[in-house]
Specification:
Layout: E1 5-7, E2 13-20, H1 36-47, E3 57-60, E4 65-68, H2 70-74, E5 81-87, H3 91-106, H4 112-120, H5 127-153, H6 179-188, E6 193-195, E7 205-207, H7 213-229
Parallel strand pairs: 3-5
Antiparallel strand pairs: 1-2, 2-5, 3-4, 6-7
Length: about 230
């Protein structure tokens, strides 16, 4: 077996080749659509000198069509030499790959804290890529909220709001200008969904944005001590 071939369990082979993007025919059965924002984000990653091509296009030599990587192919000049993983599949097998490749990947659960930590470890200059990252973490937050809503609908007890904002308190307002800051703040202050109903008999579920100053000071002190310990 040559160095650029990968032996598969069904005795078929995949081989890696570098070819001109314009020589690859798109698949008419491709159901994925790519908006301008996604295309710009893909292009910015390919153009990044530290990243470049971190993935490959997938091509079926039997049908002479792309199976995956249509957006990456469109994002570059047709004369650009691109990495292509070439396999040999029947029409039916090709259809199965088209139907399942992205959906199977999307079945993975996202860890919001791990994703945000990864975001904060890099520098992003592209506005399109930054927008993509913000949308991704917002989507992770929606997944968590959906699970919390399902828990509330199932009859699980929802904690009462710690403080009522219409009561008299001295207060400080903190504004988050972007999603990562807001997510980090919610995690630090342990802001979760609570029963914030203003009237008895009326159930309203929302984020417990009003918190006690004593608890805030305790959380900040603990976070500071953890930082010093590290």
């Amino acid at each position: 077996m040559s160095e650029n071939e990968i032996k598969m369990s069904n005795d078929k082979k995949l081989r890696l080749e570098w070819v001109e993007a314009g020589t690859l025919s798109p698949n008419p059965k491709n159901w994925r659509r790519h908006d301008s924002g996604q295309m710009e984000a893909i292009k910015s990653m390919i153009d990044d000198p530290e990243v470049g091509w971190a993935g490959v296009l997938l091509y079926n030599q039997r049908t002479k069509r792309l199976v995956d990587g249509h957006a990456r192919q469109k994002a570059v000049d047709p004369k650009t030499i691109v990495p292509v993983l070439i396999g040999d599949w029947s029409e039916d097998a090709e259809a199965k790959i088209l139907l399942t490749l992205d959906p199977i990947a999307s079945m993975a659960n996202g860890d919001k804290a791990a994703y945000r930590e990864l975001m904060e470890s890099i520098t992003v200059d592209s506005l399109e890529l930054r927008d993509l990252l913000d949308k991704t973490i917002a989507g992770l937050n929606e997944e968590i909220e959906k699970k919390e809503d399902e828990a509330a609908a199932s009859g699980e007890v929802m904690p009462e709001m710690e403080l009522r904002p219409f009561e008299h308190y001295d207060y400080v307002v903190v504004l988050a200008k972007n999603t990562p800051d807001w997510e980090a703040l919610c995690e630090l202050l342990q802001i979760k969904k609570v029963n914030c109903s203003p009237l008895k008999g009326k159930v309203k579920i929302g984020l417990g944005r009003a918190i006690d100053a004593g608890r805030l000071l305790k959380l900040v002190t603990e976070a500071k001590n953890d930082g010093n310990a590290n």
